[in-house]
Every structure is written in C-alpha cells, then in structure tokens.
Amino acid sequence: MKCAPFDYVRAGSVEEVVKVLGEAEGDGKILAGGQSLVPVLALRMARPTVLVDVNRIPGLGAVRPVDGAVEVGALVRHSGLVAQTAHPLLAEAARWIGHTAIRTRGTAGGSVAHADPSAELPAVAVATGATVAVAGSTGQRALPAEELFVGPLMTSLAEDEMIVGLRFPRPARWGFAEFSRRHGDFALVTAVVAAFDEGVRIALGGVGGVPHRAVDAERVLAGGGGAQEAARAASAEIDPTGDLHGSAGFRRAIAAEMVRRALAQAGIG
Is this prediction's pTM over 0.90? Predict the structure, then answer.
C-alpha cells in the first residue's frame, strides 16, 4: 500500500512545529527518522493531514553529560547513542535496536514518542528515571518517563507538543538483557537494571502495554534478597498476554531469566 495524501512542512524551529501541529488539530505527525512512522503510514494505520519534518531544526542532535546525567537531543540517531561513551547503558541498549540502517536513521526522540512497548529506549528511560523535555503552545515542561507512556503506541503528549530532548541519569552500575527470536527483531522481553545510591531500579519491556517498573523485585533487593528471588518476584508481578511468539507463561519465564542476567551484569547477586 501507499501513504494517504498529506501536506508536508519542513520546520525550521521548534516553535514552527508547535504552531503547525496546533493548526492540524490532532491530524499532524512529526517526521524525524521515520523508521516507525513511515511503515505505519504505508499501511494506512495512520492518515495525518500534515507531516512536519523536524530534521532541519538546529540544536536537537547533541549528547551532553550534565550533573550526573546525560542529555540527549531528540534528533540524536541510534547510531550516535551506540557511539557515545558518556552513558554506557544507553550505548548498550541502542546496540540492540533493529539493524544498521534503522540505527542510522532512527532517533531517540522518535523512539520514545512512538511508545512501542517492545522498544529498548522506553525501558531504559523508565529504569533510569529519565525525564522528557517537551515543548508545546504553553511552553516547555519536563515530564517523568513513567508518566509519558500510557498505552501501546500511546503517550500523554498533547496534540501540539513535541519531544525536544531526554535526560537520562547515569547509574553507578547497570545491566541490560534482551530476548528476541533473531537479533534485530522486536524484543519479546527486555530487562534493564540501573543501580543508584538510593537503590536499584528495574524495568521490563515487552510484557505489557507500557514499560513495567518491577517494584516488587526492587523491594526484594532493598530488603536484602538475592538476584534469583528478585527475578522470581519480577516474573510474578507482570501480567503479559500470549501471542504467536509465546504464551503468557513463556514470557514470565523469559522475564525472570532476563532480570537475572541483567542483575548479574550489574554485579547484583
């Protein structure tokens, strides 16, 4: 199939994007890397009346270490996340995104805005307690990642808002484990562990409509429990659905193993 007809706007500023999206009244879409959006348009699962190209907007393509965190511009490509060394967890997670062509074009902001529950970056955002910088008609605001994701491919962004950057705190130790049928396929289960001075945070991707914060598993670790016990707790607290890739029980079992592996990588036994 081919995309339905739409108007095309090459925006030169964030303000222009916000203006065009506001005028579109919910029928506008942002085009960055296009790795998620274009297939959806081709299948006519989305039919925006206007597409706003943000690739020419200056200042959104940098990675900057700032006060124990790393700020990532919305237009930073996945390949740029792999190459940067300021946040090793982000580099490892980005390495698992699709294939080389996808990593070359796909963007950090686009991945988070798309809100695919199987995607790597949303899980990392939740695990690290990331904040999302959002611009809209009322100005800019900082939104906790856990408040951004509200359902599969759904966010709490207003119709005239766009993500301009993300701030990922840097954990002292971290672990990342992903299970997919083949490298580059969508993840069936992803586990992300981020250890900070105040405690360990665990997030799971692919087990529900949004990235799941494994609070029961975190409590096990905070109470002195070990990795095996925490992995079992993480498996027990999720409620995945079965599909052609595996049953709910299969995903629970994989989730337990991915959490165990991520904790081992973080040196948490």
Answer: yes
